[in-house]
Amino acid sequence: MSADQGLREAWEKIPTPGEVGQELERFAGRRIERIIAIVVGVGALALGTQALVNALVKLTVVDVPHVAMMALVFVPWLAMLVCCAIGRAVRLTAGVFFVAYIVDLALWPFVATHRNLVPSDQPWIFFLVNVAGVAAVVAFPLGVQVAWALIGPFLYGTVRLLQGEFRSDFWVVTAFDVSFTLILGLVLVALGWMFRSVANGVDDARGRAVALYTAAAAAEAAEHERVAVAALMHDSVLAALIAAERAETDRARALAVDMAREALTRLANAEAPAQEGSEEPVQIELLVEDLRVAVRQMGLSIEVEHFGHGAVPDRVARAMALAARQAIGNAVAHASGRGLAVVVEGHGDTGLTVKVSDTGGGFDPAQVGPDRLGIRASILARMAAVGGVATIDSDRHGTVVTLGWSHS
Predict the structure, then answer these.
(1) What does the alpha-carbon distance between residue 325 and residue 263 come to, in Å, rounded to a whole number?
(2) pLDDT-based confidence at 29, cuts 50/70/90?
(3) 282 & 199 share domain
(4) Does 282 share its domain with 389?
(5) Rounded (5°) CA angle 185-186-188
(6) Are 132 and 147 in contact (CB under 8 A)?
(7) 92 and 205 belong to one structural domain
């Protein structure tokens, strides 16, 4: 693999902004959410099991309201545990459990028994106050989490006092339970907020790093392209200088001027976006006309021969026209245009061939220096870029440059 191919493949693998947002931006955040779900599942399992055992042991009245209240809260609790374990629909089931617990809490004074109560004996609904708190941490924004951590314990205290008919012996125990759940709930909310903030900070740092890397890679690619364009411009200017040095007639001098003007124009347009063309089909007659204009601009009197018909994508026509121009310029610069001929042959729906030949002294393509990009970049690489081929046959009898492209 060449260095250019390696750079091209590496550049293609750089994530786009859309991919960065989808794959990297929430990497740490997703991990933290998964960890929080697992921890919530473990805590909910411990406290919920304690509440379930308490409810079953102390169930003195078995009727529809009591059983319905237990089912209303413990079924969503079980679903939340399963989802926390598998990592799916955690927010949904946690939110359902949170709402179900609030409904149970509101119904508690009307369904739970008010007789033979012991103040120090907490009801099973007490063990689920903080389970509802961690469910809110998973399912809802920070504002809802803080609101429940502050209000939830007092709601439980109010419900408990209603059940105890506000007797004095209930106040001390209930105040202790409320303070305990209040402190624990705020700690749980603070921990969730802290871990998520850290994860967001990591994700932001990673996103900035990837953005900086992408910008640096883009700058490197642009600089690499600038160097290649500069080398290509150098080759064009050098060809124009050689033509000017060898010019002995008015026609040769005019050709050298045209070559210099073209090189300067290409140099001025080097910073412009590459006009690669589109996939819209164009008739090969347009390519023929383009080459005829190029020949006239070079001061040549040859005729561009045209056989056959067909159409090729616009980007292919542009590439073949530029490659053929370079081949014509090389023939003029290095063979003084002796026996120069340009033939364009369309193959209908199958493809297109352009041949540029001369009867100069020829050259050995293998001996062309690596710094000479007229053939390597302007002809071979340009045709390869559009899926075409370019062959160069040269000997002491002349040179033939064949440009070919076919529909795949």
Answers:
(1) 12
(2) confident
(3) no
(4) yes
(5) 65
(6) no
(7) yes
